[in-house]
Amino acid sequence: MTNMLAAPLARPWTDRFVLDIAMSLEGTGDPAEAVLEAHRYTPDQLIEFSKDPLFAQRVEHFRTQLRENGFTFKLKAKAQAELLLDTSWEVIHTPDVSPAVKADLIKWTAKMAGYEPTKELAADTGGVRINIVMGDATGVTPGIRQVEAE
Predict the structure, then answer these.
(1) Other C-beta atoms lying within 10 Å of the C-beta of residue 4
(2) Which residues make Cβ contacts (< 8 Å) with residue 30, sequence separation at least 6?
(3) How many folded domains does the chain comprise?
């Protein structure tokens, strides 16, 4: 049985490690031996990681980014954000964390993923907007004065 609290993106390597390997392969970073030592991995582990299609895809993605855009702060920040998703998952699923903190993390994650509606999207929909007010059967909302048409 799998641990439901484990981060769904958990893997034995991090995107920071992948980025460092990609930089090494592109000649813009430390030699592979130094990268392995810094991340406390062995050459055998790197060989095993290389068999993982996701690992190979991530290395190639970072290599392409490095060739096309050079090393950027944004690229490094993206790698760090991947790690933060795992941390966010763990915090959200920790029973001792307050619901407010969990809600903030969930909202932040949805916003970063692009699931939060933007003002432009709301204004550009051009569709029909329907508001349903749940209240008493009289149709009179307390605190709002109704005006008869003349």
Answers:
(1) 7
(2) 20, 23, 24, 38
(3) 1
* Alpha-carbon gap, residue 21 to 23, rounded angstroms: 5
Confidence at residue 2, expressed as pLDDT on a 0 to 100 scale: 46
Check if the beta carbon of residue 82 is closer than 8 Å to that of residue 25: no
Question: What range defines the domain where residue 42 resides?
Answer: 15-117
Phi, psi at residue 48, to the nearest 5°? -65, -45
Residue 111 within any structural domain of the chain:
yes
Residues making up the chain, counted from first to last: 150
Neighbours of 26 (CB within 10 A): 15
Does 150 have pLDDT greater than 50?
A: no
Give per-residue pLDDT as tens, 4-29.
555 556 788 888 899 899 989 988 88
On whether residue 148 sits in a domain, the answer given is no
Contacts 24+ apart (CB under 8 A), 58-66: 58/15, 58/18, 59/18, 59/21, 59/22, 59/25, 60/22, 62/18, 62/19, 62/22, 62/23, 63/22, 63/25, 63/26, 66/22, 66/23, 66/26, 66/28
Would you say residue 105 has pLDDT above 80?
yes
